[in-house]
Amino acid sequence: MTLLHHSKPPRLGAIALILAMFPYLAPAQGRGPRPTGPPPTPKAAAPVDLTGYWVSIVTEDWRWRMVTPAKGDYASVPLNVEGRKVAAEWDPAKDEAAGEQCKAYGAAGLMRVPGRIHIHWENETTLQVDTDAGTQSRTFHFGAPTGAATAPTWQGLSIADWETTPSSGGFFAPPAPGVPSGALKVVTTHLRAGYLRKNGVPYSENAVLTEYYNVTKEPNGDEWLIVTTIVDDPKYLGQRFITSTHFRKEPGDSKWSPSPCSSR
Length: 264
Fold this sequence. Notes:
The protein is mostly beta strands. It is built from five helices and 13 strands.
């Protein structure tokens, strides 16, 4: 697998993170005739196209993402006392013996694992995200699925919704009326306990994962996917753990290379 490492792409980073976390309030709707007929499906109503193949561009946190960090290295993760205790007990051989090599590939840590992702619609109300790293599949439901299983799993239960608030004309500019932000908001619960980092930095079964997916296009034609991740976990974290992860769109699946989970 070939992963790219170069200077941070323009206009991505802190500003994108702030905009994703604090969406603008939608202006009051004007009076007018009410639309007739059934509302469009989530697929038809999508304000932005997230589908396609995307590759991780690692421009920060290299030492924690591109290699397995040393035991006890949990710098920048706001672990509480219990979280540090669990991280200090990390034993990859023990995980392998228990058949839990995928603990670092659960939803709360998966998007930080370098590799490629494939986003596609499973049907009109369900979006799927596949990863070649760990060969994982995440399912985003628009609305709670009927008869959804409540047992915890690595990828949990993900409920999605389009954030169609007006987008900004710039960081200090007012929102542009009627222009959707295009963010996809996903909230994931019912998670099996796993790792935020491959060296045993934990999140618990009580964790709630909130994500925002945004797409931006650069003047040179490149398309970027920015995934803002917020992990709330009162069991192991003293405060929210927030990251922003960047992916660049690829023309197709020629570099797609699924690999199994690894605990090392």
